[in-house]
């Protein structure tokens, strides 16, 4: 069991925990309703939100490797020239003005441990954390996980990613054809396991090294029963629950306060975040897309990753 991570009061009293404050990671893969969940959490009084600090360090690494063949250093000091190029690349990819110090792995642990606020909520993607970079996980945080069936997440991710790259002029040839675009071959950021195994791997690591029973939420459970799942989640992590979390302001004002790799990063990635950014409640899940209407690359990805989802699903919390 790692000594540097806090695992106190896991089964503690809600009122005592919420008086003390709480620091929570919500780990996920893309298209899991995580942005809507984060927007909801941002309306807790005293809450400070950080959005995807690890994943944008990872995406920067991928952009640099793809463009130059260089591996990105973990440290900024002495590598300013490399990071200047990396910042330029990730700024182009996101369409935003990225701050270099926010995309350096070695700075994440200290920045997150120094985060101010009675409550701190960090939404991040597990694809941003590998065995090499786990040492930068901050102390003092609970690690929780949001999952959703690959049948929904991978179909949705392919569509969003294709639209984003096309709108930023980053697709050409067959990749620019929506029928020929391939989830693995044309997505330079894709990991083997389609991001879903990254969630599984981090979950297993947390169970073995940090706490034996990290909280797992299924997104469709959340959408079908937001009151019950949110109440249970808040109780377990020490956040105050109120009925106001079931209906929130649809404006973008709360999102503009989140700490991101760039102040305008979420606003510039409407193909990924747009619907959730303008949400005001959790709505029941839409009818799933039939398998026969999915592209072959998505079907292949679903078949490869379903086993990871199903194992985690058995450990999900229930209202």
Report on the structure:
- This protein is an alpha/beta fold and 319 residues long.
- It is built from eleven helices and five strands.
- Helix 3 (53-68) packs across helix 4 (80-94), helix 6 (150-167) packs across helix 11 (296-313) and helix 7 (196-209) runs parallel beside helix 11 (296-313).
Write out the strand line-up for the largest beta sheet, numbering strands in chain order. Answer: 2-3-1-4-5
What sort of overall outline do the alpha carbons produce when their principal axes are compared? globular
- Strand count: 5
Q: So what's the oligomer here? A: single chain
Query: Helix content range of the residues, please?
Result: 40-55%
- The separation of the N and C termini measures 29 Å
Taken in chain order, the helices and strands follow as HEHEHHHEEHHEHHHH
Biggest sheet descriptor: 5 strands, parallel
Low-confidence stretches: 1-18
The Rg value, from CA coordinates, equals: 19 Å
The percent range for strand residues is 5-15%
**Average pLDDT number:** 88
Give the number of helices.
11
Secondary-structure-based class equals alpha/beta
Task: Give a quick set of tags describing it.
319 residues, alpha/beta, 41% helix
List the topology elements.
Blueprint: H1 14-20, E1 22-28, H2 34-41, E2 47-51, H3 53-68, H4 80-94, H5 105-113, E3 119-125, E4 142-147, H6 150-167, H7 196-209, E5 216-218, H8 219-224, H9 226-237, H10 270-277, H11 296-313
Parallel strand pairs: 1-3, 1-4, 2-3, 4-5
Helix pairs in contact: 3-4, 6-11, 7-11
């Amino acid at each position: 069991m790692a000594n540097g991570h806090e695992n106190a009061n896991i089964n503690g009293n809600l009122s005592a925990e919420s008086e003390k404050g709480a620091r929570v990671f919500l780990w996920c893969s893309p298209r899991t309703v995580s942005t809507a969940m984060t927007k909801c959490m941002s309306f807790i009084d005293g809450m400070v939100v950080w959005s995807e600090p690890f994943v944008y360090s990872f995406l920067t690494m991928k952009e640099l490797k793809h463009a130059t063949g260089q591996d990105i250093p973990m440290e900024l000091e002495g590598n300013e020239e490399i990071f200047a190029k990396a910042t330029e690349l990730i700024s182009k990819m996101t369409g935003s003005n990225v701050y270099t110090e926010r995309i350096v792995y070695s700075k994440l642990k200290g920045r997150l441990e120094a985060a101010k606020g009675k409550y701190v909520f960090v939404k991040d993607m597990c694809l941003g954390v590998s065995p090499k970079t786990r040492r930068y996980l901050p102390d003092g945080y609970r690690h929780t996980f949001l999952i959703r069936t690959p049948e929904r997440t991978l179909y949705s991710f392919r569509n969003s990613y294709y639209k984003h790259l096309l709108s930023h002029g980053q697709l050409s040839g067959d990749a620019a054809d929506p029928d020929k675009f391939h989830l693995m071959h044309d997505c330079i950021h894709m990991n083997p396991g389609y991001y879903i195994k990254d969630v599984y791997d981090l979950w297993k690591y947390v169970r073995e090294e940090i706490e034996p029973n990290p909280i797992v939420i299924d997104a469709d459970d959340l959408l079908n029963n937001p009151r019950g799942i949110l109440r249970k989640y808040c109780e377990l992590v020490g956040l105050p629950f109120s009925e106001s979390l079931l209906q929130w302001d649809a404006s973008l004002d709360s999102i503009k306060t989140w700490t991101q790799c760039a102040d305008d990063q979420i606003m510039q990635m409407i193909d990924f975040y747009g619907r959730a950014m303008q949400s005001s409640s959790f709505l029941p899940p839409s009818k799933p897309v039939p398998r026969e209407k999915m592209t072959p690359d998505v079907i292949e990805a679903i078949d490869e990753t379903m086993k990871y989802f199903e194992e985690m699903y058995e450990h999900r919390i229930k209202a």
